[in-house]
Amino acid sequence: MRPVTLTAIGYGATIPNSNYTEGQKRLMAMRASKLDAYRALAEQVYGVRITSNSTIAGLAAQHDSFRAYVDAYIRGAKIVTVTPMADGNYETVLELELNEQFYQTVNQPQSQPIPQQQGSLERPPKAEAPITVATAQNCGGKTGTTTGCGNAANFYHAE
C-alpha cells in the first residue's frame, strides 16, 4: 500500500484589548493556529463524534444544539508553514504521512500489542501507576505527612 499524505490547515486569532504584550498575543495566536491544525488533522484521521439535542413544542423548534468531539492521538505530523495573516492572525499547515505501518495497526485485532513507530497513529498504552493514599495534616502551623495531628485531609498521589 502506498503512503498517503494528509494536509490540515489551522487558524489562530489574536486577542484584542487584552493585558498581554504584543509578543504574547502573537505567540498565543501561533499556538492556537497549530492546535486548530492538529484538530483538523485528527478529524480527517479519526472522524468527528457529533451529539445533538432538539426540543420541539407546538410543531416549532424551541431549542436546538449540538457538540462536536474529537479524541485522538497524533504522532509524526510535520509543520509545513506558519504564515502571519492580516490583523495579527496566523495560519498553520500540517502534514502527516500515513504509511503501511498505520494501515497494519488499524487492521490489527485489539488483543495484539500495537508497535510504536514514527508516523503511526496508535494510542499509547495507559500507564498503570500504583495509587497510594497519603494524608496532609496541619500540625501546629506546619503541613506534613506525619500521623497524630488533627484536621487531616486525604489526597491521592500516583507514584
UniProtKB/TrEMBL annotation:
Residues 21-96 form the Lipoprotein LPP20-like domain. InterPro entries: LPP20-like_dom. Pfam families: LPP20. This is Lipoprotein LPP20-like domain-containing protein. It comes from Sulfurimicrobium lacus.
